[in-house]
């Protein structure tokens, strides 16, 4: 994912763009750049690195001008380097483009353009937009933008400058979000609200397949058919100015709702449907290494450990590599047998967790190959390990981890598919999962749309003193994660168990006073889960059931049903955890707890 910013007004554009890039850097920060209109030409500066290091190198005199676009990048197509940084441009530098999203028919369009004599200067999909726009522009920016919408597939938010249009920015949106900020004698374009606060009083949200022409004192919107369309503006309200919760009452709720977009970006940038492959080149594990690995150790704490449980299942079942999940603080004590045939994967949101850092260091010292599955690449763990798979969840502010968990699950699934590919797998899993992965953001979105059902259940469990969470197989970790969410923010004592363990002890706890949350969605474990539910029911236990739409038999056994859409069992944990996140959130809210900053906890645990 990337961040885009555009400015046109009466002030110098460079400082506005640099500040905008800074504020958008949570979206990606491996390279950055700007383009500024100056005396009939576009002055482009861009490079690999962070804006803090790049901006001091950009000479304000050379980049004088009052209209420009800027970008902060998270590499998807091509490594982070100067040619691949945005803005991308055509050969004559008449057009500059910044882009957030994925151009899905990149290969076909690139081949076509090359056939017409275009020489590409980068590996990015974005460069395609620059050449296409330059070739179709005959003085009419809306017509050129329309031709992009006709030719290009995928999700993209674009801000475009043309050397012949001194103070005009062209904005185009399909899929990826794009806002226009309305200021006084100046207007802006941005991926999100952050860089607009303080300069703009109101915003226009560009609609699907819409084009905008933005000048210092006008904004005109056009549909894909070229017809001008009316637009509504909305003021930036007080709470948005204050804390960046984007209108949500808590960061946790905002972060739960970010999941579909984050998942989409991760999957779309990594799954190459055209080639039937998973692209994880930046992880730095060669096919030969994948073939040599004899064991994978997944290490993490808390929510990250629950993701490890899922990771061990998918690496073993999809890629056929023996894999185990170990709590990071228990790793050294096991004196694990390590060598370069072991892959040790450290999972961490912060990349700073002391327990995980120490375990990762033990793996490095023991000679294992190490990989960080991290949300902060430039972190202590990120710098120590051999390679990083950046999950790009964006900043997670709430102490209770939500979007990072689902993002870690998706990243681990992609890793398992990549490992299977490298180890000579027949591609069956990816073939089977590709359509399910494509639908996954919408499936998660569907669960978010069912918050009312969750609210009803939360009104019931808010008075509970204890709760039990049960799941099996891929969803054993989901049960543990649901219990952790509940206990850490609502302070209700909650235990999570693989459901098969019930009869070995925990069933003694069952009573009317202790609600049991059971994950019994369709798939190989559904019937055995229903068996466990009957056992709880037979002892007068209250049941909250996570069940697949239409499962009327399961419904009969439940006091409350948290419905989820039918999804492939391998990715069901990503969907099934969402009602549990919402249940914990709503229960904590009803109990008057501090949802975002629960007692006794810290977001980053840098002590052992
Ligand atoms: O930053 P990390 O992912 O390494 O943090 C690990 C745990 O401290 C963290 O997941 C914790 O359990 C969360 N508060 C759970 O919501």
Provide structural commentary.
The chain is of the alpha/beta class. It has three domains: 2-241, 4-Layer Sandwich (Glutamine Phosphoribosylpyrophosphate, subunit 1, domain 1), CATH 3.60.20; 252-444, Glucose-6-phosphate isomerase like protein, domain 1 (Rossmann fold, 3-Layer(aba) Sandwich); 449-590, 3-Layer(aba) Sandwich (Rossmann fold), CATH 3.40.50. The chain is built from 20 helices and 27 strands. The strands form five sheets. The protein has an eight-stranded antiparallel beta sheet, covered by helices on one side. A seven-stranded antiparallel beta sheet has the order 5-6-7-8-12-13-14. Strand 20, helix 12 and strand 21 (369-374) form a beta-alpha-beta unit. Helix 8 (259-270) runs antiparallel to helix 15, helix 14 runs antiparallel to helix 20 (572-590) and helix 17 runs parallel beside helix 20. 5-amino-5-deoxy-1-O-phosphono-D-mannitol binds next to helix 10 and helix 17. 5-amino-5-deoxy-1-O-phosphono-D-mannitol binds at residues 301-304, 348-350, 353, 356, 399-401, 484, 488, 601, 604-605.
CATH class of the largest domain: Alpha Beta
What is the first-to-last residue Cα distance? 33 Å
- Percentage of residues in DSSP E strands: 15-25%
Instruction: Give the number of domains.
Output: 3
């Amino acid at each position: 994912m990337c961040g885009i910013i555009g400015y046109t007004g009466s002030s110098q554009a460079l400082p506005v763009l640099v500040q905008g890039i800074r504020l958008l850097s949570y979206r990606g920060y491996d390279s950055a750049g700007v383009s500024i209109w100056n005396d009939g030409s576009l002055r482009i500066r861009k490079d690999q690195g962070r804006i803090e290091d790049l901006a001091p190198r950009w000479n304000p005199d050379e980049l004088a001008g009052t209209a420009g676009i800027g970008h902060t990048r998270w590499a998807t197509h091509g490594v982070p380097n100067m040619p691949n940084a945005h803005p991308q441009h055509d050969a004559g530098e008449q057009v500059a483009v910044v882009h957030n999203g994925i151009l899905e028919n990149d290969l076909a369009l690139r081949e076509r353009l090359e056939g017409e004599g275009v020489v590409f200067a980068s590996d990015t999909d974005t460069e395609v937009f620059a050449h296409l726009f330059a070739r179709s522009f005959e003085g009419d920016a809306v017509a050129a933008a329309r031709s992009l919408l006709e030719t290009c597939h995928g999700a993209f938010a674009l801000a475009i400058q043309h050397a012949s249009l001194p103070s005009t920015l062209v904005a185009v949106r399909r899929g990826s979000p794009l806002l226009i900020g309305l200021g006084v004698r100046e207007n802006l374009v941005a991926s999100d609200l952050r860089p607009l606060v303080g300069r703009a009083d109101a915003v226009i949200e560009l609609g699907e397949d819409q084009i905008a022409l933005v000048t210092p004192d006008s904004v005109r919107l056009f549909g894909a058919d070229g017809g001008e369309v009316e637009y509504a503006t909305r003021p930036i309200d007080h709470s948005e100015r204050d804390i960046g919760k984007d209108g949500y009452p808590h960061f946790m709720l905002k972060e739960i709702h970010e999941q579909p977009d984050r998942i989409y970006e991760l999957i779309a940038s990594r799954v190459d449907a055209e080639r039937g492959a998973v692209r994880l080149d930046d992880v730095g594990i060669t096919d030969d290494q994948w073939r040599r690995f004899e064991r994978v150790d997944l290490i993490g704490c808390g929510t990250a450990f629950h993701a490890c449980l899922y990771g061990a299942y998918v690496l073993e079942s999809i890629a056929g590599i023996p894999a185990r999940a170990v709590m990071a603080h228990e790793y050294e004590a096991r004196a694990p047998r390590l060598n370069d045939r072991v892959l040790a994967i450290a999972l961490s949101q912060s990349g700073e967790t002391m327990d995980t850092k120490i375990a990762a260091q033990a793996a490095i010292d023991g000679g294992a190959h190490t990989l960080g599955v991290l949300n902060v690449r430039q972190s202590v763990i990120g710098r120590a390990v051999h390679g990083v798979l950046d999950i790009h969840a964006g900043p997670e502010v709430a102490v209770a981890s939500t979007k990072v968990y689902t993002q870690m699950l998706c990243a681990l699934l992609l890793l398992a598919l990549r490992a299977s590919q490298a180890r000579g797998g027949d591609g069956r899993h990816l073939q089977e999962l590709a359509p399910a992965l494509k639908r996954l953001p919408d499936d998660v979105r569907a669960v978010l749309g069912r918050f009312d059902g969750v609210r009803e259940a939360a009104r019931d469990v808010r008075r509970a003193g204890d709760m039990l969470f049960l799941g099996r197989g891929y969803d054993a970790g989901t049960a543990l994660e649901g219990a952790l969410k509940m206990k850490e923010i609502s302070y209700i004592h909650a235990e999570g168990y693989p459901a098969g363990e019930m009869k070995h002890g925990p069933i003694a706890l069952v009573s009317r006073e202790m609600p049991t949350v059971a994950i019994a969605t369709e798939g190989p474990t559904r019937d055995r889960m229903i068996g466990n539910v009957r056992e709880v029911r037979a002892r007068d236990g209250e049941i909250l059931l996570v069940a697949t739409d239409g499962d009327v038999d399961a419904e009969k056994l439940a006091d409350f049903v948290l419905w989820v859409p039918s999804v492939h069992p391998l990715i069901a944990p990503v969907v099934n955890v969402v009602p549990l996140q919402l249940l914990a959130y709503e229960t904590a809210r009803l109990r008057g707890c501090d949802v975002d900053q629960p007692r006794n906890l810290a977001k980053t645990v840098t002590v052992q």
